[in-house]
Amino acid sequence: MGKKFSKVTTSHWGAFNVFVENDKIIDTEPFHADPAPPNISQLVPNAVHHSKRVDQPYVRKSWLKKNTTNARGNDEYVPLSWEDAIDLASSELIRVKNDFGNEAIFGGSYGWASAGRFHHSQSQLHRFLNSIGGYVSSYASYSTGAAQAIIPHVLGLNFHKVTWGEINSWRLIEKHTDNLIIFGGINPKNSQVSMGGSTEHDVSNHFKNFKQLRKNMISISPQQDDSPKETNWLPIIPGTDMALMLAIAYVFETEELANQMFLNTHSSGYQLFKKYFLGEDGHSAKTPEWASQETGIDASTIRDLARSMASGRTLICVSWSLQRARYGEHPFWMACVLAAMLGQIGLPGGGVGFGYGAIGNVGKTAQRMQGPLFEQGQNPISDFIPVSRIADMLLNPGGPYNFNGEKRIYPDIKLVYWCGGNPFHHHQDLNRLNNAWQHPETIIVNEPWWTATAQRADIVFPATTQFERSDIGWAKGDPYIFYMPQMIPPVGLAKNDYDIFTALSKKLNCEEKFTENQSSEEWIEGIYDKFYKQARSQGINVADFETLKEKNFERMSIDQDEEDYVPFKAFRDDPLKNPLGTPSGKIEIYSEKIAKFNYPEIPGHPIFNKPCLDRKFPLRLLSPQPHDKLHSQLQVAAEEISKHAILVMNPQDARKRGISEGDLIKIWNSRGSCLATLRPQETIIPGVISLATGAWFSPAEDGLDISGNPNVLTADTGTSDLGQGSAAHNIEVEVEKYQGN
Ligand SMILES: Nc1nc2c(c(=O)[nH]1)N[C@H]1C(S)=C(S)[C@@H](COP(=O)(O)OP(=O)(O)OC[C@H]3O[C@@H](n4cnc5c(=O)[nH]c(N)nc54)[C@H](O)[C@@H]3O)O[C@H]1N2
Ligand SMILES: Nc1nc2c(c(=O)[nH]1)N[C@H]1C(S)=C(S)[C@@H](COP(=O)(O)OP(=O)(O)OC[C@H]3O[C@@H](n4cnc5c(=O)[nH]c(N)nc54)[C@H](O)[C@@H]3O)O[C@H]1N2
Ligand SMILES: [Mo]
C-alpha cells in the first residue's frame, strides 16, 4: 500500500471509487455506471479514520471489577491487550455454556453490518456460535416482520419469494400497467439501498418513463416526497390505509366492479369477508363516507379511486412501512384481497407487489442466481425469538408470549453477543431496552465504532471496516460482481470478525470446525470458485477469481429479455393443477387457521383496528429511513455535517406552536424525549411529523436524547400476536421549542 491509488468497492448503497494515499482513504467518487449515485459514500473518509473508532479491545470497568457501581451505558472502559480480551471473552463463553447451556446465549445479532459475502458479520458470528454448540437466534427482520408472518397464510408463499420472485418487473409494469396505486410510496431515496448493493440506481428513471407513457400513478401517503414527483399525491392519515382499502372493497362490491368469477375460482372466504365490509355482521358498513372520517380523504375521491382501479390494468404497490406499525399485517393481507377482487393476479402488470423502492433491486429483471455464500453451519439450538421482541425476552425470562399460533416461552439469556448491528439505534423504546439490557451477565460486541451499543457492552472487540480487508461483493437482482480490494491496513488494532472468532474458537477447542483450516483469502477464493462453477453451469459467463481480482468488477450478462416472468401466472391459468401453498390452495381472504388462533386484533379476515394513540400527545410521528445514510452507519461523519436530526412538520403545525425553520425542537411523549432541528414543509400532512432514523442514542442526564433518535419515542409492542413485528411508525408525540442549552 502506501502511495496514491483509486479502486472500486461496493456497499449496501452501491459501488463507488475509493482514493487512498499513505494508507488513508482521502476521497470517494461515484461509480461511472450509476445513473443516480447516493451521497452516502462522501462520509467514508472521515468516518473510517475518525477518533470514535474503537482502537483496541476494551472491557467495562464495573463488569471487570464484578461490582455494580456503574450500569451499562454509564461506565468507563479499560483498554486490554488482544490476548487478555480473547482470554476474558472465551472464559465467559465457556462459563455460561457450562453453567447454563448454549440456550443461555443470545446470538440473534440483528443488523446490516457491511456488504461483502465472506466478512458478513452475522454469518461469521452464527458460524462461530454454531461451532460451540449453538445459540438462541432471532426470526425475521425489522424490515418485514409482520409481512413474513401474514403473507404465507394468504398467498401460501414465503414473503421473500413474493418480493424477489412473484413480482412484476419494472419492465412488465412499463409494458402493461395502466394504474399504479402506491400505498406508502416508492421512494428513490430508499431504493438507494439494497442488501449487498444496487449498482445502477434507476427507480427515478422508471417514473420519468411512466409519466411519458401517461400512466395513472397515485401515491397514497402522509408525505408527498415518498414517491417521485411524477406521481399524484393522495395524502392519508398514517395507520388508516386499511380503512381506505375496505372502502375501496365496498365500492368494488356495491358497484359490481369486483371480478366474482376470479374470486370464486381463485380465492376462498370472500362471502364471509363481504359481510364484514358491507356491515352485515353487526359492524358498521365500510362505506367511503365511513372511511373518510378515518383517513382524511373525501368520500368522492375514494369512489373515484376505486372506479379508476377497476378500469384498465392495475398494480397495487405496498411499501414495507405500512406493516412496520401496530396491526401492520392487515394492510398487507387486504392488498391481496383487493388484487383478488380486481381479478388481475397472474396477468402481466396486474395484481399486487410489495416493497418496490423499499430496497433497490426489487423489480429488476436480472436472472436469479445463487450468490457466493459463507456457510453458517447448523444451529443445534432451535429456540428463537421474533427479532424485535429482544427487550421482552431480556425482561421476562420464562415468560409466555404468542407468536403466529404458537404459545412460546422466552429463554433465560445470560450472555448476549452482537456483531454487525446497532440495537441502540434500531430497537423501539430505547429507554426500555436500556433497562432490559442490564439483565444479562455478559454482553460482547464486535464494532468498528463506539456506537451506543458498543458503549453498552462489557467486552468490546474493535472490528475492521470493509475497507480494511478484501472480499467479494454481490447482491440478489444486481448484475455486478465485485472483488472488493483491501484499501488500507486495519485502523488501530482492529481485526476482522473472522480473525476474532478464529482466536475465540481456538480457546473453545473448535478452531478446525470454525475455520476448516483456511485463511480469509482461501475462504474468499473458495466461495467465489463455487459461485463461478455454478454460474458457468447455468450458462452465465463470469470471470474466474484471478481475472476478477485484476478487473476489480464485472457486469454479468444476466439481464433477462423479452419474455419476462409473470407472477402467479401458473396459478391463474390452472388453480387446481398449480395451487398456492395455503390450506385451500387459493388466496385466503378468510383464513380458518388464523381464526383458530383467537387473536382479537386479527380474526379470520383483515379488519380495521383504529390506531390506539394517547390523545395527550396530538402529533403522529413517522420515523422513516434516512436519505443521507444507511441506518446509523457512518454517523460520526454525518453528525459533523448536520449536528441534529431534521424534524419535518407541516408549516401549519409549526405556526400553531410558534416555532420556525432551524429552531431546536424537543420532541417528547410518555416514553422519552429527543432533540431535532425543525424544517417546516408542505410535503407532510398537518398533524403528522417525520424524524428519520439513524442517530446514535445519546441520553443526557435528564434522559433527553441529544442525537435525535426517534426510537426514544417509539413503542416496543409487536405488530400483533400473529407477526410480532416491529411497530415503529405512527407514534403519538408533542413538540416544543427547546429551552435548555
Ligand atoms: N423508528 C424506527 N426504527 C427502525 C426502523 C424504522 O423504520 N423506524 N427500521 C428498522 C429497520 S427496517 C432496520 S433494517 C434496522 C437497521 O438497524 P441496524 O442494521 O442495526 O443498523 P446499522 O446502523 O446498519 O447497524 C449496523 C452496525 O454494524 C456495524 N458494522 C459495519 N460493518 C461491520 C463489520 O464488518 N463488523 C462488525 N462487527 N460491525 C460492522 C456498523 O458500524 C453499525 O453499527 O433499523 C430498524 N429501526
Ligand atoms: N437511504 C436509505 N435507504 C434505505 C435504508 C437506509 O437506511 N437509508 N434502509 C433500508 C431498509 S433496511 C429498509 S427495511 C427499507 C424500508 O423501506 P420502507 O419500509 O418503504 O421505508 P420507510 O422509510 O420506513 O417508510 C416510507 C414511507 O412510508 C410512509 N408511511 C409511514 N406510515 C405509513 C402509513 O401508515 N400509511 C402510508 N400510506 N404511508 C406510511 C412514510 O411517510 C415514510 O416516509 O429502506 C431501505 N432503504
Ligand atoms: Mo430494514
Write the layout of secondary structure elements.
Blueprint: E1 5-9, E2 16-21, E3 24-30, H1 44-48, E4 58-60, H2 61-64, E5 77-79, H3 82-100, E6 105-106, H4 121-131, E7 137-139, H5 145-155, H6 159-164, H7 170-176, E8 179-183, H8 203-212, E9 216-221, E10 232-235, H9 241-254, H10 260-266, E11 267-268, H11 270-278, H12 288-295, H13 299-309, E12 314-318, H14 329-342, E13 351-354, E14 384-386, H15 390-395, E15 400-403, E16 406-409, E17 415-419, H16 423-426, H17 430-436, E18 442-447, E19 459-462, E20 471-474, E21 480-484, H18 497-507, H19 511-515, H20 520-537, H21 545-551, E22 553-555, H22 569-573, E23 587-588, H23 592-597, E24 619-622, H24 635-641, E25 646-649, H25 651-656, E26 664-668, E27 673-680, E28 688-691, E29 731-737
Parallel strand pairs: 6-17, 7-14, 8-9, 8-12, 9-10, 11-23, 12-13, 17-18, 18-19, 24-28, 25-27
Antiparallel strand pairs: 1-2, 2-3, 4-5, 4-19, 15-16, 20-21, 21-22, 24-29, 25-28, 26-27, 26-29
Helix pairs in contact: 3-18, 4-18, 5-14, 9-12, 9-13, 9-14, 12-13
The site of one ligand MGD has 33 residues, from helix 16 and strand 18.
